[in-house]
Write a structure and sequence with these properties.
heterodimer; A: about 450 residues; alpha/beta; seven-stranded mixed β-sheet; six-stranded mixed β-sheet; 13 strands; B: about 300 residues; mainly alpha; two-stranded antiparallel sheet; 13 helices; 2 strands; about 0% strand; globular
Chain lengths: ~450, ~300
């Protein structure tokens, strides 16, 4: 045994061990390296976490950079494209949460209730530049009166989007943009039938129509958006008093059954199975004539080459729509709450994130952008993502008749949905009637119901 | 005495060097496996929802599983058990057959086939899940096109409660490369002399297979049985990527259920309890297999 060899072995193994241990700490050099830029004070660095596609990533990062230049406060963008909640959960558990960022509504409300998020009320009251009344009334995430953990990152209203050429070809009148003239359900189904074609080009009103070989569907109504039909029929996720399971009430059951009937009775809408095979370009490629979706879909449609039109949703009882949007929050663990608030305020200003709003992904948070024609022209008209009629069908409808999605206010929603989603699967796959499925799951749901936040 | 002293010192040095070399993995095991396991055991007795300080609540997390308060526990156990019962025997038979064929003298281009069979094992699970999503697609998928061409009724594969588990089993058979390799190595280790002796005695191919190959392979079969069962109980990626536990919880595999409880509902305490139950189940199954092994596993060295 050669002594030199042995020494070398010991050295080598020590190096391996040490390098393994050190590699875990290699991040620690970061902050100091950036320091000293601003001289006198210790520079503040905020970590802002968010999700989104490449366009959103670019716009948000640019907005954060402008904020840096204007205020001298450093911001480290943290873009998490997938498994966002898993990442946040892990970071919060490890006490390394970001200072502020997007959060899914369910986690935001339950973490807010447990005191992990900053109550923004004192900041809003003490900031002379900030007026809560400037912002839409529906966007606040409120744990209880006086404890507001944030506002929706953006507003998302729902409406009808369609390929105008297909409707003109079929001789179907274009969907109204005025809420007072919204199609009733029967009219809507009739038009959807006219727009549903089998492989021989026969539409769904034709007695020889073959529902097994559909080439073009009249309508795609993603079950995810079913709450739009429920609120239009006067129902909601919970009963008004917050104690009962609203989806098992007659209004909701009727609405959900009508959606299922679009697939299995009228054959105008793809089943969940058929939807799996629909490309994102279903409107452009004429697989679908009309679709019900949230505002964000406009961004992708604007990049496709087809004649996009928009209208208000068909109504069951009332013409209304859904208003959706996950919140941005400030984590209580932040060491710089004042600076975090400045950034928070900056990001809620439509001017800061204008490309996303103009591009169709977001709707603005401030009221003035819905009323002042000069500001409206900056986003809601005159570009490809916002076709003619948008201001009426989406913009006006959302602020005047927009119902908040359950995510804004229903307590324990994630766990309730873990039961409700499989039950609804049975309805969307045509195995059970809405009444049977929802009444069936109701006894299991009731013990989980805890009412509404903010009341 | 002096010589002996040096000898001991020398031995100690060698031991030290050995430990130092092994230290990275020993430390890794301690820090990243044992410690978290211990932590999760402790957490399983607490009410811990990430955002609160853990509060000791005794066995409550376990009781709510067994008394049926948690609506998913028995469902997910059953689904996972179904998967294990299908996957383990089929996996063993399939990979043994594949290895046996790859070991045949007369097959040409064996190395090409070996590569092909092993290839899926190096494809990341997420990527292969995406591919299989397309193969299983009810309208455009290859499998249904195939069935249609044969005038057979098509299946909904991943999208029906009855077929989702068998579909995932089918997919997992495709990724059996490492098991095949282990079997192959075992087959090549069977002494040729035994076969020659049997040939001299006039034994046919079937008899040779039955009385030489199988007995000589039992340690390998046993190893793959244990590893396969442990792996099958922990099936996860397929549920995460392809089905999200659906339809109607028919593929809510146990590990996916743990993940959902921990990272979607934030119930870390409950998730730890659920995880420990799986650990105990796997431990029991392994012990049972080891007990039975005495009666059917043949070790040449013990003769």
């Amino acid at each position: 045994m050669n002594k030199a060899k042995r020494v070398a072995g010991v050295v080598l193994s020590s190096v391996l061990t040490i390098s393994l241990l050190l590699s875990g700490c290699s991040d620690s050099g970061g902050p100091e390296a950036q320091g000293g830029k601003n001289g006198q004070k210790e520079p503040v660095t905020l970590k802002f976490s968010f999700w989104g596609d490449t366009i959103e990533k670019k716009t948000v990062t640019e907005a954060l950079e402008r904020f840096e230049q204007e205020t001298g406060i450093q911001v480290e963008p943290m873009h998490v494209p997938a498994d966002y909640l898993t990442k946040m959960t892990t970071m919060v558990a490890g006490n390394v949460a970001p200072d502020l960022g997007y959060l899914s509504s369910g986690a935001a409300l339950s973490w807010g209730r447990d005191g992990k998020l900053l109550n923004l009320t004192p900041f809003m009251e003490n900031d002379p530049d900030f007026k809560k009344e400037d912002y839409l009334d529906q966007i606040w995430y409120e744990i209880e009166p006086g404890n507001i953990i944030g506002m929706s990152t953006a507003v998302e209203g729902y409406g009808l989007m369609y390929n105008k050429d297909l409707l003109l070809e079929a001789g179907v009148e274009l969907p109204p943009t005025d809420a007072n003239k919204a199609w009733d359900w029967d009219t809507f189904v009739e038009y959807a039938k006219k727009l549903t074609l089998d492989d021989q080009g026969r539409n769904a009103l034709d007695p020889n129509f073959n529902p097994d070989k559909i080439r073009q569907f009249g309508l795609q109504y993603d079950p995810y958006n079913m709450m739009a039909a429920v609120v239009s029929n006067g129902g909601n996720f919970l009963t008004e008093d917050g104690k009962g399971f609203g989806l098992a009430q007659p209004e909701a059951i009727e609405a959900i059954q009508k959606l299922a009937d679009l697939m299995y009775v009228h054959h105008v809408s793809p089943t969940p199975l058929q939807t799996k095979n629909m490309p994102d370009t279903a409107l452009q490629t004429k697989k679908v004539a009309m679709t019900v979706s949230g505002n964000w879909a406009l961004q992708a449609f604007a990049e496709q080459d087809f004649n996009l039109g928009v209208g208000v949703l068909p109504k069951l009882k009332e013409s209304n729509t859904l208003l959706d949007g996950a919140p941005t929050v400030i984590f209580k663990s932040t060491k710089h709450p004042e600076e975090a608030w400045l950034l928070y305020k900056y990001m809620t200003d439509p001017e800061s994130v204008l490309p996303l709003i103009e591009g169709g992904l977001w709707m603005p948070l401030k009221k003035e952008w819905y009323t002042n024609p000069e500001l409206i022209n900056k986003w809601a008209a005159g570009n490809k993502a916002h076709p003619e009629g948008y201001t009426e069908a989406f913009m006006k409808q959302t602020i005047e008749n927009g119902f908040r999605t359950p995510g804004f206010e229903v307590k324990n929603l994630d766990k309730i949905n873990a039961l409700v989603t499989p039950a609804l699967d049975l309805v969307w796959t045509g195995k059970q009637k809405a009444e049977e499925a929802l009444k069936g799951v109701e006894p299991k749901v009731l013990p989980l119901i805890e009412g509404y936040y903010g009341r | 005495m002096k010589i002996g002293g040096i000898h001991i010192q020398h031995k100690r040095r060698i031991a030290m060097a050995g430990i130092l070399f092994a230290l990275p993995s020993i430390l890794g095991l301690m820090l990243f496996v044992m410690l978290p396991m211990l932590a999760s055991l402790l957490l399983s007795f607490t009410d811990y929802r990430i955002v609160n300080t853990p509060k000791f609540i005794g066995l409550a997390n376990y009781i709510r599983l067994f008394d049926g308060t948690d609506p998913y526990f028995y469902n997910s156990l059953w689904v996972t058990l179904k998967y294990v019962i299908l996957r383990v025997p089929l996996g063993l038979v399939f990979s043994f057959m594949a290895a046996f064929l790859l070991n045949m003298q007369f097959i040409r281009g064996k190395s090409v086939f070996r590569t092909i069979f092993y290839l899926p094992s190096i494809v990341p699970a997420v990527a292969s899940s995406m591919i299989w999503l397309w193969l299983f697609s009810p309208d455009l998928g290859l499998f249904n096109s195939f069935l249609e061409a044969l005038n057979l009724p098509t299946l909904n594969w991943l999208y029906s409660e009855q077929t989702v588990v068998p579909s995932i089993v089918l997919m997992s058979l495709w990724g059996m490369g490492s098991t095949i390799i282990i079997f192959l190595a075992g087959l090549q280790g069977v002494p040729r002399s035994l076969y020659e002796a049997a040939t001299v005695d006039g034994a046919g191919a079937l008899r040779k297979f039955q009385h030489i190959t199988i007995p000589m392979m039992t340690p390998i079969i046993f190893f793959n049985l244990i590893m396969g069962s442990i792996g099958a109980f922990q099936v996860f990626t397929e549920a995460l990527i392809m089905t999200q536990g659906g339809p109607n919880n028919a593929s809510l595999f146990y590990n996916y259920y743990i993940y959902r409880q921990a990272f979607q509902f934030g119930e870390m305490g409950q998730a730890s309890a659920i995880a420990w139950i799986l650990f105990i189940i796997i431990l029991l199954v392994t012990v049972i297999f080891f007990r039975t092994s005495k009666s059917w596993v043949f070790y040449e060295s013990e003769v």
